[in-house]
Specification:
The chain is α+β, with helices and mostly antiparallel strands and 556 residues long. It contains 14 helices and 17 strands. It folds into three domains: 134 residues, Cytochrome Bc1 Complex, Chain D, domain 2, CATH 1.10.760; 194 residues, Orthogonal Bundle (Cytochrome Bc1 Complex, Chain D, domain 2), CATH 1.10.760.10; 135 residues, Immunoglobulin-like. The strands form six sheets. Strands 9, 12, 13, 15, 16 and 17 form a six-stranded antiparallel beta sheet that branches. Strands 10-11-14 form a three-stranded antiparallel beta sheet, with no helix packed on it. A two-stranded antiparallel sheet has the order 1-2. Strand 3 and strand 4 form a beta hairpin. Helix 10 crosses helix 13. The longest helix is centred in the C-terminal third of the chain and has 14 residues. The radius of gyration is 26 Å and the shape is globular. The N terminus is likely disordered.
């Protein structure tokens, strides 16, 4: 069991760490991070497998609605975490936004029923995009963890989700992790989505179709193998696309993401005699600040779980939710300190805005010193200078500059979701009989070949007739389309209504229309316009019908 042998060395590393804290360099190289890391016997790194995994990792078409990739929540220059977390909020245990237990998580997808492709009301998020209940951990250097996720539920034993067979009895935590988000109806999937749906979708999806600024290695690989079946054949010998092959490729791509060129690494590799300007903070790290009790060198983590008192245990039971063991309540996996400055906000709930906030947290001995808190979390009594020295060490002495600068292997494409939206609302919505308005939305980009493109209606009066109207041109005044009761076609002067889709709102005031976009090159750059109208006596303006804003859509 290769991974177990590897981590049996952790006790020895802890002993060596004390020696490393001294200026003597005789054993420094002994505690440098292994690079390359170990690969599972049943998933050795194949030629070009990392490039296939890189495409899949950054592929927004892996999600149900083409809006989220693995990389969306794991950005290199954000230390492998989610830079959006400063503004994407989960309401926490009380399901109320704006309270102390709010969590800075990762924005995922609208809640969609896969069978009908219809929007589903989603609790406190309503019809908005859902947000995860914990901040996304980093995938950088994640190969060195025994288990993955804050609670460790992605274990070394990897089970193929399509066959149910245990394909990796050990060393498979990265494969286990990669199998989850694509079918999560919060993160990338939809209610009822399976891996069969994902593999079928990739057969016809153009690799990286939504991304721009592909790095040269990705451009060259796609030029040689322009389809996913061709890519899979190049790596695995035949074009079959399976969950096992997908997760194996993503995991082995992640195994190449080793950040080991920080000043700390220069010292551990024996390239420098000490930590130079960061020596004071480094001495504190293993001394008075007691950081190495959990953040063991060289990895700056101990592959264990601790309750450090960030929030009350009742808000998130942590590892106990996976193990069922009351002794694990409130415990979370020790993250690496490496590259923490890029991952802000920090902690599992994103509560710490800066590295300095984390240092202050530990200096005061945590915030909720009750229950199952680790006994090592005690007030430290550090001076202002000592705190500044620790911050300097973590921010500059433990950060690999290749991450922030997207230097290979940390090159990446620009995602469609990072660019200005192609679906733009315009005009003015009219009022319903209660003085409210309804909203129109599109669930993702209208790219050619997107069979799941939906134009939806939300916040409308429940159980009312509704009609979605399409036009080649927008009203030049930026207001409503003509009344949908008019016969088709209606002359707008700049286009014509070409489709009216009658339906009815649900009890939650929702309606959806699935407009599959044909995979035809002639549609590239084509624009169309849409607007919902809902029957409701007493609406304003009078006439028994009110409308949403218009939606301008550009096809990719």
């Amino acid at each position: 069991m290769m991974r177990i042998r590897f981590f049996q060395a952790s006790s020895a590393v802890a002993i060596l760490a004390a020696a490393v804290l001294a200026p003597a360099a005789s054993s420094q190289a002994d505690v440098a991070m292994p690079n390359p890391p170990e690969f599972p016997d049943s998933n050795p790194l194949l030629p070009d497998q990392d490039l296939l995994g890189k495409f899949l990792f950054w592929e927004e078409q892996m999600s149900h609605d083409n809006t989220v990739s693995c990389g969306t929540c794991h950005i290199h220059e954000a230390g492998g975490s989610d830079p959006r977390a400063t503004a994407t909020i989960n309401p926490g245990a009380d399901n109320v936004f704006g309270t102390d237990d709010d969590i800075r998580g990762s924005a995922g997808v609208h809640r969609i029923d896969h069978a009908t492709n219809q929007l589903v009301f989603s609790g406190s998020f309503g019809t908005d995009v859902q947000v995860t209940g914990r901040k996304s951990p980093s995938m950088i250097n994640a190969v060195y963890f025994e288990d993955i996720f804050w609670d460790g539920r992605a274990t070394q034993a990897y089970t193929d989700p399509q066959t149910g067979l245990v394909e990796l009895p050990y060393l498979g935590a990265l494969e286990s992790q990669a199998a989850g988000p694509p079918v999560s109806d919060v993160e990338m999937g939809s209610v009822g989505r399976t891996w069969d749906h994902i593999t079928a979708k990739l057969v016809t999806a153009k690799p990286g179709a939504l991304a721009t600024d592909l790095p040269p290695e990705m451009e060259d690989f796609r030029a040689a193998y322009p389809t996913y079946p061709a890519m899979f054949a190049a790596v695995y010998g035949d074009p079959a696309i399976t969950s096992k092959r997908i997760t194996f490729a993503i995991a082995n791509y992640e195994r190449t993401l080793i950040a080991d060129e920080s000043p700390l690494d220069d010292f551990l590799k024996g390239n420098t005699p000490d930590m130079g300007p960061f020596q004071a903070g480094f001495t504190l790290f293993g001394g008075a600040a007691n950081c190495t009790s959990c953040h063991t060198l060289p990895f700056t983590m101990d592959s264990d779980y601790h309750n450090i008192g960030v929030r009350p245990e009742s808000e998130d039971i942590g590892r106990m939710g996976f193990t069922g063991n009351p002794a694990d309540i409130g415990k979370f996996k020790t993250p690496m300190v490496r590259n923490a400055a890029l991952r802000v906000p920090l902690f599992h709930n994103g509560q710490a805005n800066t590295v300095a906030d984390v240092v202050e947290f530990y200096d005061r001995g945590g915030d909720f010193n009750v229950g199952n808190q680790d006994p090592q979390i005690v007030p430290l009594g550090l001076t202002a200078q000592q705190k500044a020295d620790l911050v300097a060490l973590i921010e500059d002495g433990m950060t690999d500059p290749r991450l922030a600068n997207n230097v290979f292997p940390f090159t990446r494409p620009t995602l469609r979701s990072e660019l200005p939206p192609l679906n733009v609302e315009y005009g003015v919505a009219s009022l319903d009989s209660q003085g409210g308005t309804a909203g129109i939305y599109a669930n993702g980009p209208a790219n050619r070949g997107n069979a799941n493109f939906v134009i939806g209606l939300r916040d409308a009066r429940p159980n009312k007739p509704a009609t979605l109207v399409f036009s080649f041109g927008a009203d030049p005044n930026g207001t409503l389309f003509p009344d949908p009761r008019f016969p088709v076609p209606v002359n707008l002067g700049i286009g014509a209504i070409f489709l009216k889709a009658p339906t009815a709102t649900t009890a939650d005031g929702l309606a959806s229309f699935n407009l599959g976009i044909p995979n035809d090159s002639i549609l590239a750059g084509f624009e169309f316009y849409a607007q919902w109208f809902i029957a409701d006596p007493g609406s304003n303006p009078p006439g028994g019908i009110y409308g949403t804003k218009g939606l301008a859509v550009t096809i990719l």
